[in-house]
């Protein structure tokens, strides 16, 4: 495992880390025993950073992380998020008292005294423009409740706006082979500003595992069923904004990247790891096998300049026009 510095902070995090949305809920059936085994497997292989949120299973993923990391609090870094348990459009959700409550509740579930990274969870751009929430986070940081703070964003515009605040130390962005726009301006600007990049939805909600066909049926409590077209939250969080059937078709055209790289998923993660502006990539998981498969990306060959150019051209000519929503 290699470790990368999170922007200009003192935190060094595993280049391949994990997101815990899936083990909390909204990705179909889960098994806590298997989830805990998977977390243990990841840590045994050197993973020292996990991303979660207070709304993942109504706090369940935070509770699982508390169990898995008990006694390892100094070695395992946790990033959590807030605001989506309330009305994300209301300024009251970002008030000092409300954010303090969110923070204290997360600390309680995580059984920690301080959060390593506290992130605003995809707020509307008006909230970011207002800027009061950053003052609230500055106060919590001064009190020692949080070590650093960042923002999980939906669009490049939101990300660039966040970079104007010198105390934002991390941006979490949707970034994968089928969602390359952040490469153009946002990632280079973040590196210039000393802001870490956490790449989420790296496998386009499973599309880049290559296991789906157009006929695949998702469980009713899986967001890939109930948010397929952005009915519940931003469409970009599900299949990276692509229509499922179009995504399946595009993935078939990408199968060449797994040659010499074992799995399509390990190749797709390797592509992200090859972007030096990225601090860490956070695929999700529900099983030990999925953790192990994702860790394979650390062993497979990097992409050549010719391959990188081919993938960029593919994105520009075949993919970009099909991504829905602002991004």
UniProtKB/TrEMBL annotation:
<dbReference type="InterPro" id="IPR023210">
    <property type="entry name" value="NADP_OxRdtase_dom"/>
</dbReference>
<dbReference type="InterPro" id="IPR020471">
    <property type="entry name" value="AKR"/>
</dbReference>
<feature type="domain" description="NADP-dependent oxidoreductase">
    <location>
        <begin position="15"/>
        <end position="313"/>
    </location>
</feature>
<dbReference type="GO" id="GO:0016491">
    <property type="term" value="F:oxidoreductase activity"/>
</dbReference>
<protein>
    <submittedName>
        <fullName>Aldo/keto reductase</fullName>
    </submittedName>
</protein>
<dbReference type="InterPro" id="IPR036812">
    <property type="entry name" value="NAD(P)_OxRdtase_dom_sf"/>
</dbReference>
<dbReference type="Pfam" id="PF00248">
    <property type="entry name" value="Aldo_ket_red"/>
</dbReference>
<dbReference type="InterPro" id="IPR053135">
    <property type="entry name" value="AKR2_Oxidoreductase"/>
</dbReference>
């Amino acid at each position: 495992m290699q470790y990368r510095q999170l922007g200009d902070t003192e935190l060094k995090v595993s280049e391949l880390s994990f997101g815990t949305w899936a083990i909390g809920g909204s990705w179909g059936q889960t098994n806590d025993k298997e989830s805990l085994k998977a977390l243990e497997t990841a840590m045994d292989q050197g993973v020292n950073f996990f991303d979660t949120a207070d709304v993942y299973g109504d706090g369940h993923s935070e509770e699982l992380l508390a169990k898995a990391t008990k006694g390892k609090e100094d070695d395992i870094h946790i990033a959590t998020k807030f605001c989506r348990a309330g009305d994300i459009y209301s300024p009251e959700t970002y008030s000092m008292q409300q954010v303090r409550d969110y923070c204290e509740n997360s600390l309680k579930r995580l059984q920690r005294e301080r959060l390593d990274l506290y992130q605003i969870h995809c707020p509307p751009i008006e909230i970011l423009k207002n800027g009061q929430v950053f003052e609230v986070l500055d106060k919590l940081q001064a009190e020692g409740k949080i070590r650093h703070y960042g923002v999980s964003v939906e669009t490049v515009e939101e990300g660039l706006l966040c970079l104007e605040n010198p105390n934002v130390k991390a941006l979490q962005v949707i970034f994968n082979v089928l969602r390359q726009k952040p490469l153009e301006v946002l990632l280079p600007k973040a590196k210039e500003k000393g802001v870490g990049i956490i790449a989420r939805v790296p496998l386009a909600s499973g599309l880049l595992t290559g296991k789906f066909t157009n006929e695949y049926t998702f469980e009713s409590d899986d967001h890939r069923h109930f948010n397929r077209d952005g009915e519940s939250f931003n469409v970009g969080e599900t299949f990276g904004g692509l229509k499922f059937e179009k995504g399946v078709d595009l993935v078939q055209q990408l199968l060449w990247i797994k040659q010499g790289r074992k799995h399509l998923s390990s190749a797709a993660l390797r592509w992200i790891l090859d972007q030096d502006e990225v601090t860490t990539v956070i695929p999700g998981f529900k099983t030990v096998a999925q953790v192990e498969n994702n860790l394979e990306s650390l062993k497979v060959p990097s992409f050549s300049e010719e391959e990188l150019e081919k993938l960029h051209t593919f994105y520009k000519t075949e993919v970009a026009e099909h991504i829905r929503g602002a991004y």
